[in-house]
Design brief:
505 residues; 7-stranded antiparallel beta sheet; two-stranded antiparallel sheet; globular
Length: 505
């Protein structure tokens, strides 16, 4: 009886199995086939030391998570290739047992976050999950599953600190309002214009659309060097609903009620007590960039996802410049001049071609031919007539195609000889011989030769240094007098004194 009670007590003391959230039972949101995607870069201000320290800590924590996942993936991949029997029996089951799947990598990331106490102060489970998905898609799956050509990527390996420049974020929920985990963008473009309005801007310009219509070179914004982080809205907001007692319902104000300048907000880790991480957005000040801003930022309903990115910048505080890459559910921006140029190019009825090289991409266009060449077309007579000629006597292809007359090398007018010392040397095998004014392939006697003094000679025997017969004197340069160094005589040495005599007198 005692043993039975102990077994029953042990069953009650045992920790219950952990429960996970099941699959979504609602209809999953999918992007339509006609909905395009575009990305806009938003520079962030991190001049405040506290904000910069938290941002650097966030990148350090996420990099440590990615490095741990890459090492785990490498060990699991080694075990997968070492198990020959299990892999031949059922490779898919063997991969699932080793955790080489998207869900398996996510569970590894959760365990790393739960076992470490410091990661909860910087990151959230949503960030850790998306980092695990990126590691699986970019390294593990590309190594395990070959592509269409049968090639595989190398095994996962841990990267360097300087190469970690991107933290993937979670997409916004388009089925539930006010649900956007990880990095969120709050504020409006009109509120940014009202807060940092240029002092010289016309008072009639009150909307972003009016600012975008200004001429290029007009200043729209006047943002300080250090952008202050706005405060979170406080107070109560009316919901528009009425209770049973005929009272208006209210709720607490959140970042979703912020209508001021644009900011990127991150809630921070579950164990953090420093509140939200608020990063101010710096927009272009000139009016020439505002049509593009209006295209991407006027409709908050199209904002989809934000990735936090950093890049090396020696002029930025801390050596890193931070940006928010906002993915928008809309097409890319094209200015009216670009649209007109594309329409004009499309109306020319030209044929385009792309030449891809290792490090170069060339895009060209050609006029549409009225009569395209066919395989049965005859070759021109000029090309048939030159088949029997030697290689060095065949005309160039472009000259034969254009129909221009071609002359033999001996009939071509050639310039006078430059008198080069290698002119009489035979050329490479198959090269066309050189023709001279007298019609022969040999140099005339005395032409291009040099005398003992190094002066070029002419057919008459005269040189540039020696005049023709009948003249007197040689036109030789006068020798430069050589300066001799005069010898200096050393001064006479002073007579040495004889040592004093030590003999006694």
């Amino acid at each position: 009886m005692t043993a039975e009670l102990c077994e029953t007590a042990a069953c009650f003391d045992a920790a219950p199995a952990r429960r996970y959230r099941g699959r979504n039972k609602g209809k999953r949101w999918t992007r339509g086939a006609d909905i395009e995607l575009a990305v806009i870069r938003l520079p962030l201000d991190v001049h405040d030391p506290g904000i910069r320290h938290r941002t650097e800590g966030l990148f350090w924590a996420m990099r440590s998570v990615k490095r741990a996942l890459q090492r785990d993936g490498r060990d699991a991949v080694d075990a997968y290739w070492a198990g020959d029997v299990r892999r031949e029996r059922d490779a898919k089951v063997w991969r699932l047992q080793l955790g080489l799947s998207r869900e398996g990598m996510e569970r590894r990331a959760y365990r790393h976050m739960e076992n470490s106490r410091h990661l909860a102060h910087h990151v959230t489970k949503a960030l850790v999950m998306h980092q695990a998905d990126e590691v699986f898609e970019t390294s593990v799956s590309r190594h395990l599953l070959p592509d269409s050509s049968g090639r595989r990527h190398g095994r996962p390996r841990a990267g360097r600190w300087w190469d970690y420049t991107r933290i993937p974020g979670r997409a916004r929920s388009h089925t539930i309002s006010r649900k956007w985990e990880t990095f969120r963008l709050h504020g409006t473009l009109a509120g940014h214009l009202d807060t940092y309005r240029n002092r010289n801007l016309d008072h009639t310009v009150t909307t972003p659309e009016q600012a975008a219509a200004l001429s290029a070179g007009t200043g729209v914004l006047e943002q300080p060097r250090h952008l202050p982080a706005p405060m979170r809205p406080t107070g109560r907001i009316q919901t528009g609903e009425v209770t049973a007692k005929d009272t208006t319902k209210t709720r607490a104000a959140t970042w979703w009620d912020h209508t001021g300048p644009l900011v990127v907000v991150f809630t921070g880790g579950a164990g953090s007590r420093r509140g939200d991480l608020v990063l101010s957005v710096r927009l272009p000040s000139g009016s020439g960039r505002w049509p593009r801003l209006v295209h991407f930022l006027t409709n908050p309903g199209t904002w989809h996802k934000i990735d936090l990115v950093r890049r090396r910048d020696t002029s930025a505080p801390g050596g890193w410049a931070y940006e928010a890459h906002l993915m928008v559910l809309t097409g890319g921006y094209a200015s009216p001049a670009t649209k007109a140029r594309r329409a004009a190019a499309a109306a020319l009825e030209r044929v385009g071609g792309i030449d891809g090289n290792v490090s170069n991409l060339s895009i060209v266009s050609f006029p549409t031919p009225s009569t395209p060449p066919t395989a049965t077309s005859k070759q021109p007579a000029s090309s048939q007539a030159t088949r029997s000629l030697p290689r060095w006597r065949k005309p160039a292809a472009r000259t034969a195609a254009a129909g221009a007359p071609w002359t033999a090398p001996a009939e071509r007018p050639t310039p006078a000889s430059t008198g080069h010392r290698n002119a009489n040397r035979p050329g490479p095998k198959g090269a066309r011989p050189r023709a001279f004014p007298n019609g022969s392939s040999k140099r005339p006697a005395g032409q291009g030769q040099r005398t003992r003094l190094g002066c070029p000679s002419s057919p008459t025997g005269a040189t540039a240094c020696q005049p023709a017969s009948g003249s007197t004197g040689l036109a030789l340069p006068k020798p430069r007098p050589r300066r001799l160094r005069q010898k200096t005589t050393a001064p006479a040495a002073s007579p040495k004194r004889s040592p004093p005599s030590t003999a006694r007198t």
